[in-house]
Every structure is written in C-alpha cells, then in structure tokens.
Amino acid sequence: HKVMLRRLIDKPTITRDKHVVKLVANISSPDEVRDVIANGGEGIGLYRSEFLFLGAEKLPTEEEQFMAYKSVLQQMRGKPVVVRTLDIGGDKELSILNLPKELNPFLGFRAIRLTLDKQDIFRVHLRALLRASSYGNLKIMFPMIATLNELRQAKQILIEEKNKLVEEGGEVSDTIEVGMMIEIPSAAILADQFAKEVDFFSIGTNDLIQFMMAADRMNDKVSYLYQPYNPAILRLLDMVIKAAHKEGKWVGMCGEMAKDPIAIPLLLGMGLDDFSMSPSSILSVREQLATLSKAEAAKILDKVLSMATTDEVIKLVKDRFRILD
Ligand code: PEP
Ligand code: MG
After folding, report:
1. Its Gene Ontology molecular function terms (predicted)?
2. 20-27 and 13-14 as β-strands: parallel, antiparallel, unpaired?
3. Catalytic residue check, 254
4. 200 by DSSP, 3-state: which?
5. Partners of 182 in beta bridges
6. In testing the pocket of ligand 1, which one of 82, 206, 210, 213 has its CB within 8 Å of the most ligand atoms?
7. Which ligand 1 atom is at minimum distance from the Cα of 203?
C-alpha cells in the first residue's frame, strides 16, 4: 500500500468527477519542508511562525526571522507558502515577555491581540516576512481575528511596514495575498463581511470547535464535546466557505479536521479549496479524494446539514463512503 501511495507524490489532487483541490502542509520550522516535498505537498498551508519564539531566551532578530522565512520560500520553489503571523501568548507561553498568568489562556491575550498591542514585535516580524517575500510565493495570515477592526489594524500596520521598506529601497513582492484564520465564532458568522477585506480564509478548526462547543481542547473531562461532525459545526463551516466563494475568495482548512477521513467527503461537498495537514497525511488523503465524487459528496452534505446529532452524521458518512482508517 505504501508503494501505491508513493505513486501519488507528483500527481495533482483530483476527485473521481475531476474536481481539483490542493493538499498543503502544516509546518513549524524550515527543517520540515523536506518532509513536505517528500510527501507530495502542493504548498505550505500553515507555517506556525511562533516556533522561533517559543523557548527562546531572547526575541529572534529581524535577520533570524528573515532567514527562516526565506529558507521556507526558497525550498518551496514558487509553490504557495502561508505564513501565520505570531500566535504567541495564551497557551503558547513566551517566558521572555513575562506576561501574567491567565485564568483562561485560550480566551486571553494572545495572537493578534498581543501583536496589535506589542507593535514593536509585530513590526519587526512583518518586516522580516516582507523582505523574504521576493524569494517565493508568500501569503500572510493573521490568527485569532475576532473583529473587523482588528483585521483592518493588522492590514494597516502591514501596509505601513511595506511602504517603509520600499522607501528604503528594499525589494518586496507586490503579489502577496493577505488572509486570516477563521477560528473564532464571531468571525465565522460574519464571514461575508470579512471576505470582502481579505484574499483568503484558513479555517482553524482546533480552536473554532473548542469555542463553538465551549469545550477546552486540552481537558479530557469535556473531550466528548469536541465534535467536528456536530451539525452546528458543519453548518458554520459550510456557511464560511460559501460566503468566501461568493466574494471570489479561496478557503483552506489548517485544523486537524482537514485530514480526517470522515470529514473529508463533507468538506469536499462544501467546496473547500485547500486541505492543510501534517506532511505524513498528504498521500493517504490524496488517495481518499481520488475515490470520491464532489457531486455525490455535495448531495450527502445536504442531508447531513439537516441532521440533529453527531452520531447520525457519522453513521450516514460511514454508510455512504468507504472510510479507510
Ligand atoms: C487551529 O486553531 O485550528 C490552528 C490550526 O491553529 P493552532 O492549532 O496552532 O491553534
Ligand atoms: Mg488556532
């Protein structure tokens, strides 16, 4: 079976009814790009840039950050690379910042909330990204956006840093797409509004599900509520994807759900464009998608969206599709 999968390495990802999607990878460091290429990844869907910061004894310099981003872009040779701006704070603790302990770190001072406040850190980070942009196909994505105001502020700071660099004579790509994570319910519900102001969405189901179900993703006692196939979640995902498409914007998913064999037919039916996952999952997902028809998946999705419980959804998907584990 492994040998069969390897044949899919340099093939496009295409369904039985000839619908094409992209399978891209989640990474945390430039070293992981080798795995992405070895597993036939068509790009990077999520580069968790904060990993240069976690555990560091001092903040990484602009040059250190630039080298890391440039390395990823060069290794990917023009394939898309989505870099998420710093998702630090909260559960991703950063000892050098000396932030007070929080009662609810997942709901706290983290990601875009922290970087809009500590703009010195944010601006250096963005400069490093902008300088790296001429080495490949960079897309920049903001995490944990809850309001349009946050998105507009982040975009404004990005434009300011870009203008400064250009004035200094630096080379900056002028085709950088700017997107946002959809991982907070308020942004998901207002997706039609957000879609007018970004080039793409990437749905972060790891956080989105915990916030929708009010169930801490790290707490075993409530893990039964962590339900990716709950019709409430599925309706929301469907709404987000349709809202983006209506504005002509593409949608990826970079949470764990994107590689889940039960979720995949449903996400295909919704029209998800990019599935982002750990490199080791790419080939088996490509194989599964080749057995599916988008038209058929859309019909099953229709039924699923009018169901009431997670169990009904799982049963129907398992009855209608051959799910390999
Ligand atoms: C997510 O929330 O789904 C996500 C991809 O981000 P992280 O897991 O890094 O919070
Ligand atoms: Mg997240």
Report:
1. kinase activity; metal ion binding; phosphoenolpyruvate-protein phosphotransferase activity
2. antiparallel
3. yes
4. strand
5. 203
6. 206
7. 3
**Per-block mean pLDDT, blocks of 10 residues, the chain (325 long):** 89 97 98 98 97 90 98 98 93 82 91 97 98 98 98 98 97 97 98 98 97 94 96 98 98 98 98 98 97 97 98 96 74
Token pair 């950088």: residue: 176
Can you read off the two tokens belonging to residue 289?
Answer: 């998608």
- Integer Cα distance of 100 and 116 in angstroms: 18
CA distance 318 to 320: 6
Q: Is the CB of 87 under 6 A from ligand 1?
A: yes
Contact between residue 140 and residue 132 where contact means Cβ atoms under 8 Å apart = no
Angle between helices 231-246 and 263-270 (to 10 degrees): 30
C-beta 206 within 6 A of ligand 1: yes
Burial of residue 39, with CB atoms counted within 10 A of its CB: 0-12 exposed, 13-18 middle, 19 or more buried: buried
Amino acid, single-letter form, for residue 81: V
256 lines ligand 1 (CB under 6 A): no
